[in-house]
Amino acid sequence: xxxxxxxxxxxxxxxxxxxxxxxxxxxxxxxxxxxxxxxxxxxxxxxxxxxxxxxxxxxxxxxxxxxxxxxxxxxxxxxxxxxxxxxxxxxxxxxxxxxxxxxxxxxxxxxxxxxxxxxxxxxxxxxxxxxxxxxxxxxxxxxxxxxxxxxxxxxxxxxxxxxxxxxxxxxxxxxxxxxxxxxxxxxxxxxxxxxxxxxxxxxxxxxxxxxxxxxxxxxxxxxxxxxxxxxxxxxxxxxxxxxxxxx
Length: 247
Ligand SMILES: NC(=O)c1ccc[n+]([C@@H]2O[C@H](COP(=O)([O-])OP(=O)(O)OC[C@H]3O[C@@H](n4cnc5c(N)ncnc54)[C@H](O)[C@@H]3O)[C@@H](O)[C@H]2O)c1
Fold this sequence. Notes:
Blueprint: E1 8-12, H1 17-28, E2 32-37, H2 40-50, E3 54-58, H3 64-78, E4 83-86, H4 99-102, H5 104-129, E5 136-140, H6 151-171, E6 176-182, H7 188-193, H8 196-205, H9 214-224, E7 236-239
Parallel strand pairs: 1-2, 1-4, 2-3, 4-5, 5-6, 6-7
Helix pairs in contact: 1-2, 1-9, 3-5, 5-6
Bound molecules: nicotinamide-adenine-dinucleotide.
Nicotinamide-adenine-dinucleotide binds next to helix 1, strand 2, helix 5 and helix 7.
């Protein structure tokens, strides 16, 4: 890739929360960012806030054909895809229940978005990322993947597994695949949904006693997609203030 070509980043769930923060950070680095979200109106507002390097796209990551068509369209218009952030996910307080309690229909929907969404977007983007210098995928798992007995944690444990399997599978195409496992990060969704008791409980598990912030996850993402991490693939990095440390 020559320096004259603009690098292209696709961020799922890009309308708000981490996705929005990732969009700002990658656009600030001069990348073209495409914010894919179910909520097109919110994604458009975010893209307008970021500026000319950002654009919004409507899409449901659990729709295989739609993700195939979207990645193809992006690659056609911009020449390829360099970075994919598989960030879209269902993580409401409601999803944080045992499977029997959540029920099979809601569990299935969450698995479709949190697990199948990662699979569909990765496979759809792969041909347009293959062979591009510095091509990298970052999946967003969760601290809940470490020892959770809840449906949500199971979905995020699957994301850790997919990170290893896709690191092997896409390695021959020169695509690195890693994941981040955020701890409790005070996005708007978390502030609105989690009770102060639950927040205090998680904070009590942390070694670092301050609140987790979106910028903590952004910093780790920027490192994972940078040349500094070119020898790193298949890893899930916990960014949880030490709340999930285990040997
Ligand atoms: N905030 C935290 O503390 C925390 C901790 C660990 C992991 N995570 C994970 O980080 C990711 C982002 O979290 P957040 O707090 O920014 O979430 P958020 O709820 O603020 O934003 C998620 C975005 O994803 C979009 N989305 C949902 N389903 C979608 C679908 N099927 N297709 C396309 N877009 C869809 C939503 O419209 C929304 O804009 C999620 O995968 C979540 O599980 C968050």
